[in-house]
Each structure stands twice: as structure tokens, then as C-alpha cells.
Design a protein that fits this description.
The complex is a heterodimer of chains A (143) and B (410).
Chain A: H1 7-24, H2 29-39, H3 43-50, E1 64-69, H4 72-76, H5 79-90, E2 103-108, E3 120-122, E4 125-127, H6 132-140
Parallel strand pairs in A: 1-2
Antiparallel strand pairs in A: 1-3, 3-4
Helix pairs in contact in A: 2-3, 5-6
Chain B: H1 19-24, H2 29-35, H3 39-49, H4 61-70, E1 77-82, H5 91-98, H6 100-114, E2 118-123, H7 131-143, E3 151-156, H8 166-173, E4 197-201, H9 202-206, H10 208-214, H11 216-220, E5 230-237, E6 243-248, H12 253-260, E7 266-271, E8 277-280, E9 298-303, H13 308-322, H14 328-345, H15 353-367, H16 371-375, H17 377-386, H18 388-404
Parallel strand pairs in B: 1-2, 1-4, 2-3, 5-9
Antiparallel strand pairs in B: 5-6, 7-8, 7-9
Helix pairs in contact in B: 2-6, 2-10, 3-4, 3-6, 13-14, 14-15, 15-17, 17-18
Classes of the chains: A alpha+beta (143), B alpha/beta (410).
Chain lengths: 143, 410
């Protein structure tokens, strides 16, 4: 693997996948195939990178991805309540996307906001000290 | 020992979006000083200060720089590790938010010392909201003319705890899966794209300008014999006042958890996150230093209402999810540990579980490729040491529960 992934090529691979993730909301099989072909890599190598990182997805995600932190500092401050509130509001469980393609709900490991626990990321925005009311407001503000 | 601000001295003093407020606080004076010195003299000063890496491992910073300086080759790289993924750690986020300029100045000094024109800041994608502020700060420093000798690129991750491990981090910058590498060769001789590379934690670098301005002797007077300077702690969990604080190394744990953060009814404290150790309340006066226990500076307090096995199984769940999967002891070991701890936590333990956990811990600590797998055994072995009764009680309860259900085995 090491000798195949040349400097400039592989530097572009993760960046390329991240760009596609931002643009299309996920990385589909066709994109993986095309990228592998154009970069002279095997499909497995590209798929390997696409499935390694938590922020890359090979399944379609909603326009808004909610990542609720489940690590211990947030867990101690009732992160389960955050998950339950989102689930009740949107009708989706962790790992699911709403039928209208607006929201995806995911559980994530520590996002470094333990001083504001419980916390979540909505796309790239951090929301901390969450309460059911605050979560409702945040979700309603999403067009 | 008291609080002391070296790393955080500019936080909430300067405006992180305005370089002029940084210049008023002696900004870039250390860089001017360093550029007037030979790289060897800068390295000698850092070596003499006794500064050790703040990411968790505590490797002497000056020695690392010297190794990279002496490594043959014209192309070398400098990386700032801002992939703060350790559970309960948020100090680097606080630093990047409040004082990006000191970090940039430190990178400029380090680049001069090791002889490189290219630095990277590897920023975790979870901190994407810090990117604009950081870019803005770099642009201002460039406009100020202080980055003539250095290009700083910000390289974002894509969500992976293991990428905070230095060799996995380099793989990630290279665009690959972030998997730990076999060592040797170590990064100062063969790192990013095979070139000599220095990787320093955000907090380690933050000490550099102060060391050059005040001198190594000044820095050496702070702290203990083997741990010089201060440490920034991220305090969270069952405390009234979570947040970031900076104490002189060698300060007692209770000074931080009880006096500073106002924790009550403490059962135990997890130090250094998922890969760190566990300190029971009876040892709350433990001094925090490299020679005792320190880690990344994550301090997570648990009160008496918390269940030991629940916390340990959640910690190991984290490590199992974040294992890169390259080496077998870590990939399989964390999964098996999680299976055992999961059934203990849910009241379905078996007699031999403690022995199996102990054996597994030993194997993983000895044979894992990187710190993740080696450290995965620590939360288990520490709680087995201090809260063994909790494990034994749970197994007894499990046997009792099974007898109620009419299951005769074990």
C-alpha cells in the first residue's frame, strides 16, 4: 500500500473525499470507483479511507447531521436525554435519517466540549449545555 | 502548589482576532530573540528548560528538536498536534480559541530551531468551528511580517481519535487511513512522507515563547525535579465548576478537583481520559507530575452514585470503537474486553471474568503497536486494583440473578 500511495496523490485522497462528503452529503460507489481509477489506486484503498473516518459516510446523510456526544463527561450529564429529545422531536433513532432528508442523528465520541456537557455538533456548529427546550429551539432554527 | 499562568497567560487578556493586542503583551519578542540566535542555541535553551511534551507521553521537547535538527536531509517538517481527541480533554480548544498567536509564534521559533520551512497544524474536524479564527490569526501574523521563513498549513482530520497518535496523524496528513506505524524509525528521523518530522502538542509549543523570553533557568525553578513548568487541566464530570485551569506541576489532585472545581462526594477521578489512569478518593492528594500520574490533563470526576463497571465498560467501548484495527492485540483485545465488561455491567458476569481481564490486560499492554492498545488495559487494571470489590460483588450478583432465572451454570 505504501509504495502505491504517492505523495501528491494520497494527499489529495482524503481531501477529495472530504470535499465530496461536503458537496454530495455522502460518498457513493460510483465516486469511489472513479477516484480509484483516476488516482491509480484500488477500489479497496479508496473505500478503506472513505470508511475509516467518522465524518465520511458511504450512505446518504441529511442536510443537517446531529452528532450527540456519548463519551463519559457528557454521559455523566445525561447525554441520553439529548438523544431521547432529538428522537422524540424528529422520529429517528441514532444512525437514521428523516424521510425528508433534513436531519441525520448520530452518536459520536468526545467532541472536546466536556465543560459544556451535554453537547452536540449540528454539522460543524457546537451546541453545549443542552436542555430539551434548547434542543427544540436549535432544531426549529434549521430551515 | 498554586495556579500559575504560563500557557494561558494571554487567554482573556488579548483579543484573539486582533494581533495588536498580542503585540502589546510582548508578542513576537521571543521570535525576534530566537531568530537572532543560532538554531543550536535555541534548542540548547529548550533542552535546559526541561520542558516535556504535554500530549500525554512526556518526551523531552528539546531532545526531540535536536534529533530532527541533526537528522540528515534538507526537507523537514514540523507538525502541531491539535487533534485533541482524548475523552475529557478540551484545553487545546480553549487555547486555540483564546490565544492562537502564541502558538503561531512558537511554531515559527520551532521551525527556525529544527530548520524547516513547512509546518502543519493538524486540527480535528470536530473543531472545524475554530478554523476561521486560526486562519485569520495566521493571516495577521503574515501581514505583520513575522512568518517570512515559514509556511503554516492547517490540515483538517475527518474524525478519528487514533489520529492524535503521532504516527497515525502523519498517515492522515498523507491522506491515508490513520493507522499507527511500526517504530523505529521514529518521526525525528523518518516521519511525514519519510522526512524528519517533529510533532508537538499545542500546549507544549505554548510554553516555548515564555521559555525564550524568561530563560531556561526561570522555567526550571517551576515544578518538580522531573516535571518542569505548569500543566493545563481540563476538568469535567461531577464537579460544580467544569473548565480549564493551569497549575504548577506537582500540584495535588485535590487542589484541582476539590478546591478549584468544587467536586463533592468523590468516588474516583479519571486522569488522562480513556487511555489514562484511575485514582480513588483515598489517593486524592496524589501530586500530578510526569513521575506520578498526568496524561493529557483530562480530569474527570465521578461521585459516589456512579457505577465502576458502567464507567469502565464505557471507557473500553470508546477504545474499541476508536482502535485503528492494524494490530491484533488492540483490535481483538478491546472487543473481547468490551464483551466481558459489558456482560459484567449488565449483571451477567462469570467467575473467570476477572482472571481473563487480567490476562488480557497484560497481553495488550505488552504487545500492542501504539499507546491506544497499550493503555486500554489501564482503566481495567486500575479499577481491578482499587475497586476489585465492585467486580466481585457484580459476579456474585450475576450468579444470584441466574439462579433466580433457573439457570444452573456457574
Amino acid at each position: 500500500m505504501d509504495n502505491k500511495l504517492q505523495v501528491s496523490e494520497c494527499k489529495d485522497l482524503l481531501a477529495l473525499l472530504r470535499y465530496e462528503q461536503e458537496k454530495a452529503g455522502y460518498i457513493d460507489e460510483q465516486f469511489i470507483e472513479q477516484t480509484a481509477q483516476s488516482m491509480g489506486l484500488s477500489i479497496g484503498e479508496v473505500y478503506g479511507v472513505a470508511t475509516f473516518y467518522h465524518f465520511l459516510s458511504t450512505m446518504p446523510l441529511g442536510r443537517y447531521v446531529i452528532r450527540v456526544c456519548k463519551s463519559i463527561p457528557c454521559y455523566l450529564k445525561s447525554s441520553q436525554l439529548v438523544v431521547e429529545t432529538v428522537r422524540a422531536k424528529l422520529g429517528i433513532a441514532p444512525g437514521e435519517t428523516t424521510l425528508d432528508g433534513r436531519f441525520s442523528l448520530q452518536l459520536t465520541n468526545c467532541i472536546g466540549a466536556c465543560d459544556q456537557a451535554p453537547a452536540m455538533l449540528l454539522n460543524h456548529d457546537l451546541h453545549g449545555n443542552l436542555t430539551p427546550d434548547k434542543i427544540a429551539q436549535i432544531l426549529e432554527a434549521c430551515p | 502548589m498554586p495556579e500559575k499562568r504560563i500557557v494561558l497567560k494571554n487567554c482573556h487578556v488579548i483579543d484573539p482576532r486582533d494581533i495588536n493586542t498580542y503585540l502589546e503583551q510582548d508578542g513576537f519578542k521571543a521570535l525576534t530573540l530566537a531568530l537572532g540566535m543560532t538554531p543550536e542555541a535555541v534548542i540548547a535553551e529548550v533542552k535546559a528548560s526541561g520542558l516535556r511534551g504535554r500530549g500525554g507521553a512526556g518526551f523531552p521537547c528539546g531532545l526531540k528538536w535536536e534529533l530532527a535538527r541533526k537528522a540528515p536531509g534538507d526537507v523537514k517538517y514540523l507538525i502541531c498536534n491539535a487533534d485533541e481527541g482524548e475523552v475529557g480533554t478540551f484545553k487545546d480548544r480553549y487555547i486555540l480559541q483564546n490565544d492562537p498567536f502564541t502558538l503561531i509564534e512558537a511554531l515559527a521559533i520551532a521551525a527556525h530551531a529544527i530548520g524547516t520551512k513547512q509546518a502543519f497544524i493538524y486540527l480535528r474536524l470536530e473543531y472545524h468551528y475554530l478554523l476561521d479564527g486560526l486562519v485569520h490569526a495566521i493571516d495577521q501574523v503574515k501581514a505583520n511580517g513575522s512568518l517570512a521563513h515559514l509556511d503554516i498549513k492547517i490540515c483538517e482530520g475527518a474524525g478519528a481519535y487514533i489520529c492524535g497518535e503521532e504516527s497515525a496523524l502523519m498517515d492522515s496528513i498523507e491522506g491515508k487511513r490513520g493507522e499507527a506505524r511500526f517504530r523505529p524509525p521514529f518521526p525525528p528521523s523518518k516521519g511525514l512522507w519519510g522526512k524528519p518530522t517533529i510533532i508537538n502538542n499545542v500546549e507544549t509549543l505554548m510554553n516555548i515563547p515564555a521559555i525564550l523570553l524568561n530563560g531556561a533557568q526561570w522555567f526550571r525553578q517551576i515544578g518538580t525535579d522531573k516535571s518542569k513548568g505548569t500543566k493545563v487541566f481540563s476538568v469535567s464530570g461531577d464537579v460544580d465548576r467544569p473548565g480549564v485551569c493551569e497549575f504548577i506541576l506537582g500540584s495535588r489532585l485535590d487542589e484541582i478537583v476539590v478546591d478549584w472545581a468544587h467536586a463533592r462526594d468523590i468516588k474516583m477521578v479519571q486522569l488522562g481520559g480513556a487511555a489514562g489512569g484511575i485514582v480513588p478518593f483515598s489517593m486524592i492528594e496524589t501530586p500530578l507530575a510526569f513521575e506520578s500520574i498526568l496524561g493529557s490533563g483530562a480530569v474527570t470526576a465521578f461521585d459516589k452514585s456512579r457505577d465502576t463497571l458502567d464507567l469502565v465498560s464505557r471507557t473500553v467501548e470508546f477504545l474499541a470503537e476508536e482502535s485503528c484495527g492494524k494490530c491484533t492485540p488492540c483490535r481483538e483485545g478491546t472487543e473481547v474486553m468490551l464483551e466481558i465488561l459489558g456482560r459484567l455491567a449488565s449483571g451477567d458476569g462469570q467467575q473467570e471474568d476477572i482472571q481473563t481481564l487480567e490476562e488480557l490486560s497484560n497481553v495488550m499492554a505488552l504487545s500492542s503497536l501504539c499507546g491506544l492498545g497499550q493503555a486500554a488495559s489501564i482503566p481495567v487494571s486500575d479499577t481491578l486494583k482499587y475497586f476489585r470489590n465492585d467486580y466481585e460483588t457484580r459476579i456474585k450478583q450475576s450468579v444470584f440473578l441466574r439462579s433466580l432465572r433457573g439457570q444452573q451454570w456457574q
